Amino acid sequence: MSKSRLAILGGAPVRAQYLPYGQQIIDEEDIKAVVKVLQSDFLTGGPAIEQFESEIAAFTGAKYAVAFSSGTAALHGACYAAGIGGGDEVITTPMTFAASSNCVLYQGGKPVFVDIDPLTYNLNPKLIQASITPNTKAIIPVHFTGQPAELDEIMQIAREHNLIVIEDAAHALGATYKNRSIGAIGDMTMFSFHPVKHITTGEGGMIATNNPVYYEKLLQFRTHGITRDQSRLRDNHGPWYYEMQFLGFNYRITDIQTSLGTSQLRKIGSFIEKRKQLAELYIRELGAIQEIILPHQLPYVESSWHLFIVKLQLSKLNATRRLIFQALQKENIGVNVHYIPTYLHPYYESLGFQKGICPVAESCYEEFITLPLFAGMDQEDVMDVVAAVKKVISHYSNQ
Ligand SMILES: *Cc1c(COP(=O)(O)O)cnc(C)c1O
């Protein structure tokens, strides 16, 4: 009995050592690749950047890719390239990190939040139509947890209404939708290389696109709006000459970072395979627990499993989500919550967004708990999480 006493009630935790929810893997090859750049002529503006871009383009099947200093900067670039400006409305999901809609605000546009599907937690395509107005310019679907959003429906609606689709694929490098790679489907697709994502550059992001016009705009936006391209200059004072043609930013990534990215990308297959195996183990081991709902997977997509989220059925528990969360933390399991619906943040409230816009996202938020999942975990780590979930849930179950 004392063996199974919850750690939050003074018992021994399931694990002695804290298991984080996500973590990068860096090996000797990664370190060598970075050191090589440090000893080279270019710390930034060199060949490692284009190499990483072309390898991401090849991996995703996109014609072009432009690397940025972060996924957020990349989203900003995509909104600029899409021509989003004052008064333009952009449809997106609230079940995401704030960057998915902040990029619209950077450009003076207005995010319009559409609710999620209760099974996949992705943007519900059936609700998009009703939110389209003459001011709608784009849709930003997010491939939440790595499971692709309903892209056929979204692309169809976009074509009918002449909208640009910018995919937030921060969770979905290596995912597929109906056997097509994420990155070559929408007009522009953003990837993030933050250390919790599939591969890392420390900070970093990318836009993949098949569109040469967007490609040129993204390159110029990333570097102050400056171009040296002879064919695009208004004047030409000489060989030194360049022009700043619009207000861009310094959103460049470095060769130090992109050399790490290229080295990491060599291992993407094994990283995703490992995440998939661990997720399958979670599904097998947690399947019988009535008090939680496991992530539903569409039959025609392959998730890249960035996050593993369980939904608590609070009516079957004598505990709040907060208590379950804290009890799991005390068992040394690094649980997390993804995400607070974006428009509930005080800044969005100050813009006039109110509670109640997306009731499904709001109720999911109340019940979600993210379990640890990263390629560096092993099966024993998963079994520790499973043991902790069973211990805590059975303690608070009212079934
Ligand atoms: C990580 C993330 C971003 C932002 O990427 P950064 O590289 O951290 O700027 C955007 N959207 C989602 C859904 C993310 O998870």
Characterise the protein shown here.
Helix content is 35%, strand content 14%. With 399 residues, the protein is α/β, with parallel strands linked by helices. The strands form 4 sheets. It has a 7-stranded mixed sheet with strand order 1-9-8-5-4-2-3, sandwiched between helices. A 3-stranded antiparallel sheet has the order 7-6-13, with no helix packed on it. α4 (99-106) links the parallel β2 (89-92) and β3. α2 (47-60) runs parallel beside α7 (255-265), α3 (71-81) packs across α4 (99-106) and α8 (268-286) runs parallel beside α12 (379-396). The mean pLDDT is 97.
Helix content: 25-40%
CATH third-tier fold name of the largest domain: Aspartate Aminotransferase, domain 2
Encode the helix/strand succession as letters: HHEHEHEEHEEEEEHEEHHEEEHHHEH
Instruction: Estimate nothing, just give the exact number of structural domains.
Output: 2
Q: Which shape, going by the Cα principal axes? A: globular
Structural class computed from helices and strand pairing: alpha/beta
Number of helices: 12
Poorly predicted runs are none
| Structural Rg | 22 Å
Mean pLDDT: 97
Strand content: 5-15%
Report the bound ligands by name, code or SMILES: pyridoxal-5'-phosphate
Largest beta sheet: what is the strand line-up? Answer: 1-9-8-5-4-2-3
EC number: 2.6.1.92
Pfam family, one: DegT_DnrJ_EryC1
InterPro entries: DegT/StrS_aminotransferase, PseC, PyrdxlP-dep_Trfase, PyrdxlP-dep_Trfase_major, PyrdxlP-dep_Trfase_small
Keywords: Aminotransferase, Pyridoxal phosphate, Transferase
